Amino acid sequence: MRTRVAIIGAGPAGLLLSQLLHVEGIDCMVLEQRDRAHVEGRIRAGVLEQATADLLERVGADSRLRAHGLRHDGFDLVVDGEMFRIGLRDLTGAGVVVYGQTEVVRDLIEAGLQRGTPLLFDAQGVRLHDIDGSAPFVTFEHDGGEQTLACDFIAGCDGFHGVSRAGLSPELGSAFERVYPCGWLGILAEAPPCHDELIYSNHERGFALASMRSRTRSRYYVQCALDDRLEDWSDERLWNELAVRLGGRAAEAMTRAPAIEKSIAPLRSFVFEPMRHGRLFLAGDAAHIVPPTGAKGLNLAASDVRYLAEGLIRFYRRGEAEGLEAYSRKALARVWKAERFSWWFTGLTHRFPDMDPFARRLQAAELDYLRSSRAAQTTLAENYVGLPL
Ligand code: APR
Ligand code: PHB
Asked: Among 10, 44, 236, 297, which is least packed, fewest CB within 10 Å?
């Protein structure tokens, strides 16, 4: 088998890249280790920057997004029970679209299948070869046989635990990391949201977030201890904790329905540089992770593959390699700004167990400043809606 671009991983990064290339007539093939039902069933975050929504439109995967995406022009912050609003549109002229990543993945798979993009699920044992040479190839098992896919380039879109970054010798790059001393416990419930915008709360018992997937489906999170187990958190305990941390108005409006899904995720910041090694390009979670507080994970995956697609299109249309050579530098410049924002917004809204009284007072002062300063709110809003590409 041969293709121009072998794409490892059918998450948002790999799927979106495949469609950006396919609409330009550039052959590619996506190799995914899990089955389609697993990929389409994973519950992830759900806030799209306008630039991400525009990319979905460009590849014709936006009809459900247009019909069901919820346009939000602001969100609310609750500080010790008192709520104030960050008016995104008023401050920046832009808003965000609330639409689950699960739905984005379904829409991209659907678009790919309709367009006839080769999308191979259940591709096991993927290995990359000769990424430093001029004729790289990928081997994997599929349908009980060993397969070889020859290509010009490989896009490593296989997430944080994938093989693409793991296969590089550590001395080829630098890894930067922060692990936070807490996790997020998330719950998805068939219940109308408690508020028409998202609510981020900093409470003495820890962070909480009220989000949504639609007008009938809610998504909530509470900060939990790293060693908490799901069994520690009955639905009742979780709803009670959300009510306390989100405060009066939200607590009154909250519909307590049984959890459809409940999970605990650690919080991590991670970047691997550079994002290119020979003919291998890393994109999305394969190259970087952000804590979910700023909702940047999916949006960064989208901006990475936009830069990468631009480089590949220029290469195949005009024979120019400059776009590919600039990929890592351009992507990392945006990645680090989102890393900074996600780290900052996490620090502002969480109560870490190792926070001393000095750090806590600085946090309270910063929240107070944010409440009263349009300049501070604009800085937050600009980053939240997404910095220019
Ligand atoms: N071979 C083939 N596929 C693999 C391999 C492998 N060895 N390892 C992982 N994969 C697949 C995973 O099963 C998954 O479908 O790669 C895909 C990676 O998808 P994501 O983890 O969703 O990463 P990405 O596409 O970069 O999207 C980033 O997703 O994880 C969230 O929070 C993250 O919002 C961010 C976004
Ligand atoms: C979500 O709805 O899952 C969500 C929303 C906003 C965030 C993180 C997650 O900052």
From this structure: 236
Of 16, 30, 31, 32, the one to substitute when testing ligand 1's pocket (max ligand atoms within 8 A of C-beta) is 32
* Ligand 2 atom with least separation from CA of 98: 2
| Residues contacting 170, CB < 8 A, separation 6+ | none
Cα distance between residue 101 and residue 106, in whole Å: 9
Secondary structure letter of residue 148 according to DSSP: E
Residue closest by Cα to atom 6 of ligand 2:
295
* Contact predicate 157/305, CB 8 Å: yes
Domains of the chain: 5-70+99-177+268-346 (3.50.50.60), 181-266+352-385 (3.30.9.10)
Cβ(104) – ligand 1 distance below 6 Å:
no
By three-state DSSP, how is residue 99 classified? coil
Cβ neighbours, 10 Å, residue 79: 20
Which residues approach ligand 2 with their CB closer than 6 A?
Answer: 45-47, 198, 211, 219, 292-293, 295
The arithmetic mean of pLDDT across residues 61-86, rounded, is: 96
Which residues are marked as active site? 72, 200, 292, 296, 384
**CA dihedral of residues 284, 286, 292, 295 (deg, nearest 10):** 0
Indicate if the alpha-carbon torsion angle 86, 87, 91, 96 is positive or negative: positive
Residue 191 has pLDDT above 90, yes or no: yes
Q: Are 78 and 246 in contact (CB under 8 A)?
A: yes
